[in-house]
Amino acid sequence: QVVKDRPKVVNLQFEFTMFGHVINSFLIVPLLYLLRYLFKVKVITTLHMVFPRSGYNEYLRQLIKIDKSYIEKLLTEILYYYFYITIYFLIKVSNKVIVHGNIFKIYLSDYINSSELEDKVVMIPHGVEPNEPCISTIKDKFNRKKIVLLFYGVISPRKRYDEILRNLDANTSSSVLIIIAGKVPHYYRGYLKYLMNILTTKNIKNLFFIPYHIPYKFLSELYRLATFTVLPYKRVIAASGVLSESLEFCVPAIVTPHPYFYEILGKNYLFYIDNFSIQSINHVYYLLRNNSALLDDIIKHIKSIRQKYSWKNIAKMHLNVFRNLI
Q1: CB 309 within 8 A of CB 125
Q2: Helices 241-248 and 292-308 meet at what angle, rounded to 10?
Q3: Which of 34, 104, 203, 221 could tie 99 with a disulfide, CB 3.0–4.6 Å?
Q4: Do residues 97 and 119 lie in contact, with contact meaning Cβ atoms separated by under 8 Å?
């Protein structure tokens, strides 16, 4: 397509595992060289996933999950340098790199010097499509008898689902409907098996576990059903599509106190919970249900965030980056 259209600027979207298996991700480097030096095209790479180098080893061990520790250690070291080299060359060869949060720009300071970081890396937040009406949507949900918690997205160890399930029993979930849904990459099948073992040893009522890709039509119904989405992430290495969709459907998100969520939601956002439990979520629910003024403030806050990060505004920011390269 580049040969046919001869564009001046190309925007590449990159995330590890985007091309299938994680090892195939290195294809981005020769592709960048072809675009830059053979076709003479300027390249803007949107880097969707950024690893802080200090957190690599734990993440990679979760990917590998091998019983023999010495093999696991060796493979972890190999993947560590593989990820590092891929991101390093991606930044070096691209004309500009876009990340979706200032925290990810900080992570990239481990890869390149500060002057190159300021020259090449641009922060543009993830966009939101504000379609769903906020006032009627939220107020209707807080008049229901049962709280519906939606845990959605790629099922991954960094989301702490195992900790949450271990803390549940038949009684603690009686007033709550819990939905855990999302696809499971092949490298997290061991984690899926671990979650299934927890579920089979507990008699948890009102819990639906859907470890599959969810078509958008069905997914939109899940968001409309949810009282809260829950994002209990240990670490945040990419902009949260679940958070963007929660804002789109006007569903309050309960999140961990992480710098990325501070950036998007503000430090005064009400729903930061570090130690997740049904009791803590119940407390937040009834606090809002019994305080209409506080609920109105939450609605206004979500509406203002949706407007700030609307795709129309985000598109303008991208257009400025493109224009500056031409």
Answers
A1: yes
A2: 120
A3: 104
A4: no
Residues facing 148 on adjacent strands: 177
Residues whose CB is less than 8 angstroms from the CB of residue 5 and which lie 6 or more positions away in sequence, other chains included: none
| Class of residue 211 by CB neighbours under 10 A (exposed 0-12, middle 13-18, buried 19+) | middle
Beta bridge partners of 150: 179, 229
pLDDT in tens, the chain (326 residues): 777 888 999 999 998 766 566 666 778 888 889 889 888 999 999 999 888 776 666 655 555 554 445 565 666 677 778 888 888 899 999 999 999 999 999 999 888 888 888 999 999 999 998 777 777 778 788 878 788 999 999 898 888 888 888 887 655 656 788 999 999 887 788 889 889 888 888 777 788 999 999 998 898 899 989 999 999 888 888 888 899 999 999 999 999 999 999 999 999 898 898 887 777 888 888 888 888 888 889 889 999 999 999 999 999 999 999 999 88
Other CB atoms within 10 A of residue 130 CB:
20
CB 98 within 8 A of CB 124: yes
Do the Cβ atoms of 209 and 191 come closer than 8 Å?
no
Task: Say which residue the tokens 């629910």 belong to.
Answer: 285
Amino acid, single-letter form, for residue 217: K
